[in-house]
Amino acid sequence: MSVVCFIRAMRKVIQKNEKQKADWKQLIDSYAPLHVRYPEGELIYQVGTYAAGVYLITRGFVSDHCTTQKKDRYLSTSEILGPGELIGLAILLQGSDKLHISRARAITETELCFFEKESFFKMAQEQTIVKDYCIDCLARRLYSIKRRSCPTDHKTPAEQMYRLLLELAQKHGEYSEKGLILLPTEITEAVLAQLLGISNTKLSRIITSVTWVSLLGERLALLPEASPLS
């Protein structure tokens, strides 16, 4: 994807996100969810625990991890979700016994709005925008997982890092006129190394050896034009 096309796509995403923020602010004022805060590294919910409701992330980032067994193998998928995204949507699944099927953990200090199950269902029945948002949210996650369905052992750490940064940039980045996509300030080198499961030293070596990512002060910046996957 060219920088021009990426920047145009980013503008559309930002405009859409701003509208969604305004919509959610109105819903929060109307339905009065519980405001909760989790420090970095704290578990929000675990697999098999009761799903009492849905969380809307308002600040920070959450890792949502799911492991499933397929024959004699275990397949793991992990998503990084940020402001404006929902977690805890297992309550929408039929036959799930209303239990969480994934593990959510705050990877930065995180603030969320918690909608109890009954309140969320009531809101979804009364507000078409909520139902549409859930469908859109789940569809985007499915597409994201399908794009990352290749075994990770066939990818280098640099390729894994690029895919992760590109996904974060598309959802939460800020574009600059120089063609750089600035990553959220919460995604530091230490956080990124933890997400990739590598040491800070190894991450620093990758950053200095590639052309598609750089540091602007302490902020990570992505250059999609120099993609290692093209």
Task: Give an overview of the whole structure.
This protein has helices spanning 3-31, 117-126, 128-147, 157-172, 189-196, 200-209, and strands spanning 34-38, 43-45, 53-59, 62-70, 73-81, 86-87, 103-106, 110-116, 174-175, 181-182, 213-216, 219-222. With 230 residues, it is an alpha+beta fold. It has 2 domains: 1-29 and 152-230, Winged helix-like DNA-binding domain superfamily/Winged helix DNA-binding domain (Arc Repressor Mutant, subunit A); 33-147, Jelly Rolls (Sandwich), CATH 2.60.120.10. It has a 4-stranded antiparallel beta sheet with strand order 1-8-3-6. Strand 11 and strand 12 form a beta hairpin. The protein starts with a helix and ends in an 8-residue tail after the last strand. 26% of the residues are buried.
Relevant terms:
alpha+beta, Arc Repressor Mutant, subunit A, four-stranded antiparallel beta sheet, Jelly Rolls
